[in-house]
Design a protein that fits this description.
By secondary structure, the chain is α+β, with helices and mostly antiparallel strands. It contains four helices and four strands. It has one domain: Ribbon-helix-helix fold (Orthogonal Bundle), CATH 1.10.3990. Helices cover 54% and strands 20% of the residues. α2 crosses α3 and α3 packs across α4.
């Protein structure tokens, strides 16, 4: 089975969403994401040397500035995709 940084891609890729609680800007909230997105988020926070909740707080601030802010889980997924696309575009 192919593994990437702690994720078994065969078993975990289609795993149902997982709910986690965290404190963002002093408020407790729950976020539901698929394990793949939790892994990508963890890697993004590690790369930036930020606690996971601090990165989520930054994403939350950015989403609230949008004309029509999406939900937090959607904003996280979009931010991660944009982050990955930015990295891919930088190597092209």
């Amino acid at each position: 089975m192919p593994r990437t940084g702690g994720m078994d891609l065969t078993a975990d890729l289609f795993h149902p969403p997982v709910k986690r609680s965290m404190t963002i800007a002093g408020h407790q909230t729950s976020i539901t994401l698929e394990p793949l997105f939790w892994e990508l988020l963890r890697r993004a926070s590690d790369k930036r040397a930020l606690p996971l909740n601090a990165l989520v707080a930054q994403i939350d601030v950015a989403r609230l500035e949008a004309d029509e802010p999406p939900g937090l889980a959607t904003a996280i997924r979009l931010w991660l995709a944009n982050d990955l696309l930015g990295k891919l575009g930088a190597t092209d």
